[in-house]
């Protein structure tokens, strides 16, 4: 099993690397969140150990980035002991939380438990999704178009796009998107989505008025069609 340890404490990195390798794990390390994202995209670990208080990209942002494209287990190992920190990490997508200083045997037991529940990282959706001349890098939260470079998206436009591209070919209801982004109290505010889908199409579709990839399912929601075949066959735009 391949594990990525993200922690800015060099002593903890060294101790965990030695311990885990001695127990048969393949170990990758990163001393900050940005390096961890790069390592994750390049090596696709099966499990992550993440500290919260890291420079450049903190642990919460790292977990959110990972959850954009992988369901590999995340175990937070942090010196923050408050319940608010635990809740925030779990809400961001972490699977378990251990506080520092930790008991090594307990940590190893939690790793074994997460490893038994995990699915192979190779089964995750890749960190990059391509449609037409557009590339969406889910790990780096970056959208580019061939010949045009990076495409600027607002944070909400990114959230809408991310939800759709993580479910290729599947209907995603308006209520699902509204609830994930704005909360359950806004599940009837469909005007929000029409606005953001219109903006995304202007930025990403070859013909915004005749979308091929970001499709509307009338009365239900939206569908991401990565190869554009549904629109070519006459599906509603």
TrEMBL record:
Residues 2-115 form the Response regulatory domain. GO terms for biological process: regulation of DNA-templated transcription. Residues 126-226 form the OmpR/PhoB-type domain. The modification 4-aspartylphosphate is found at residue 51. It holds the Pfam family Response_reg. GO terms for molecular function: phosphorelay response regulator activity; transcription cis-regulatory region binding. Residues 126-226 bind DNA. GO terms for cellular component: cytosol; protein-DNA complex. Keywords: DNA-binding, Phosphoprotein. This is DNA-binding response regulator. It comes from Cellulomonas pakistanensis. The lineage of its organism: Bacteria, Bacillati, Actinomycetota, Actinomycetes, Micrococcales.
């Amino acid at each position: 099993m391949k594990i990525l340890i993200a922690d800015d404490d060099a002593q903890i990195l060294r101790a965990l690397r030695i311990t885990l390798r001695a127990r048969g794990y393949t170990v990758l390390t990163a001393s900050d969140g940005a390096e961890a994202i790069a390592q994750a995209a390049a090596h696709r670990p099966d499990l992550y150990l993440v500290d919260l208080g890291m420079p450049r990209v903190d642990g919460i942002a790292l977990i959110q980035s990972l959850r954009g494209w992988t369901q590999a287990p995340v175990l937070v190992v942090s010196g923050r002991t408050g319940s608010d920190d635990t809740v925030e990490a779990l809400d961001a997508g972490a699977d378990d939380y251990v506080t520092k200083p930790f008991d090594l045997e307990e940590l190893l037991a939690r790793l074994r438990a997460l490893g038994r529940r995990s699915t192979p990282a190779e089964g995750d959706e890749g960190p990059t999704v391509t449609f037409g001349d557009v590339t969406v890098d889910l790990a780096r939260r970056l959208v580019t178009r061939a010949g045009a470079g990076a495409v600027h998206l607002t944070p909400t436009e990114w959230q809408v796009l991310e939800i759709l591209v993580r479910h290729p070919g599947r209907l995603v209801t308006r209520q699902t998107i509204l609830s994930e982004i704005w909360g359950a109290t806004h599940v009837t505010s469909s005007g929000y989505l029409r606005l953001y889908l219109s903006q995304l199409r202007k930025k990403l579709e070859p013909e915004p008025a005749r979308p091929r990839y970001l499709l509307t399912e009338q009365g239900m929601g939206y569908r991401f069609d990565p190869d554009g075949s549904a629109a070519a066959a006459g599906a509603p735009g």
